[in-house]
Amino acid sequence: MKFYSTKVKSIRHLRALSKKLGKMVENGSFYQLGKEKQIELKNRLANLYRETRAVFSSARLRRILASSAVLLGLAFSVQAQSFAAPVTFTSGLVQDGVPVYHFADIDGDGDQDAFMSVYGDSTRVLRYQENTGSATVAAFGDATSNLFGVAISANTLPTTVDFADVDMDGDLDLFIGTYNMDTGSAPILGWENTGTGMAPVFSLSPATNPFNFQPSEEFSEIAFADLDGDGDPDVLMNDYQETNDFEQFKYQKNLGVMPTFPVFEDPIVNAFGLSNTNVETFVMSFDDIDNDGDQDLIIAGNEGLYGAGNSAFNYYENTGTSTAPAFAASVANPFDLEVPANADILIPDLVDIDGDGDVDIIATVYSEDTEISAVYFWENLGDVSSAKDITAVSQLSVYPTIADQVINWEAQSVETIGNSSLRIVDVHGRLMNSETLDINTGLNKGEVQVADLTTGMYILHIADERGNTLANHRFFVK
């Protein structure tokens, strides 16, 4: 009884704080606060939600939090997720060999293109497939080894592929991990994008372990994410040791651009509470899986402790904040995730491949019994609180996603919604621009001037007159 009364007190505090923050967002006073005060208020709201969600229904909590939906849509949304059963992905992705996929909008047209290192019988190569469909209906063209001028030596064995704008010039730079058990040397290779966000060029010779990167020997993998919310990409690598049963994590913080050259701190093993006791060797992928405004992590790989044919997605929830990460212990196959039978190797990537605003999973599944791999798709269904279900607006796209003057936007709606707002918010939640608009049934489109914004990542945010989140989409200003 005492436990329940304590939770009732917490939900009263949650209601009062949500109402207060909702009013502050509506009148703009929240965005006039200093960054530290904004983070303090967001964290208080997040902590109150965590205290009450085990006792009170999600529907009740959503009603309480509705008044601060604009803020929460960017900082602490309470949208629980669930995933559909896996289906074979039939949009043209290659199924040959064992592909390790990574998705990125390399040509700035608003959809996700596919990059992969492919494990064959005796070779490992890099390939690229352009998304010739759209942000909502992907369709991939023929695979090519011509990755915009990328050249690797014949003895380079790629593992994972990732992109990050490390020099903050508005285009995506390329990085790969490598593998070599014979020499004991597996560097991270990096290519500067000397083209643009819409016409990439990677013709320079690759840099070996640039920016103080310190990969593991023999087997290296790499993943970028802005874990500390300061606007630049940090890096997480695998920490492979022959004496360990399971790979661990190696984190290097990006100290910033000085003025165009990033510097990364020395590595920390298992930062932010990360630890792995399940997967012998893994592939990492970051995104905001639970829609609470910070970067979560999912890993998978070979079977590890689970036994042959029973690999799993291992999910690390970021229970900290977007500026101070802290990861909970891993959970196997959360959000109703199912794994196909005989999945001895599971290689995931998180990507919103259908353009509905939530994070889906595409993964390669390999069976040692059949020696056959297949690419599967897990659609993120969300629950009734997800943007996909609570709003009539969907299919928001922004192009180019890397711009210096103007961005264009398009959004589909199944109904007319008057007195809406179109806002630009930076990565710290500060309101940079706002204008009113009417959302009409069907296709809505417009343009926004971004020439006055400084270089960095922003979020284009559409909300109704009550502040309820309708849609949002990231873009970059170069």
What's the arrangement of secondary structure elements?
Blueprint: H1 2-27, H2 35-52, H3 58-65, H4 69-75, E1 87-88, E2 98-104, E3 113-119, E4 124-129, E5 158-164, E6 173-178, E7 189-191, E8 207-208, E9 222-225, E10 234-239, E11 248-252, E12 254-257, E13 262-264, E14 268-269, E15 282-287, E16 296-301, E17 314-316, E18 331-332, E19 345-351, E20 360-367, E21 372-378, H5 387-390, E22 393-399, E23 402-403, E24 406-413, E25 417-426, E26 431-439, E27 442-449, E28 456-463, E29 469-477
Parallel strand pairs: 23-29
Antiparallel strand pairs: 1-21, 2-3, 3-4, 5-6, 6-7, 7-8, 9-10, 10-11, 11-14, 12-13, 15-16, 16-17, 17-18, 19-20, 20-21, 22-24, 24-27, 25-26, 25-28, 28-29
Helix pairs in contact: 1-2
What structural keywords apply?
four-stranded antiparallel sheet, mainly beta, single chain, 478 residues, five-stranded mixed sheet, 5 helices, 29 strands, 13% helix
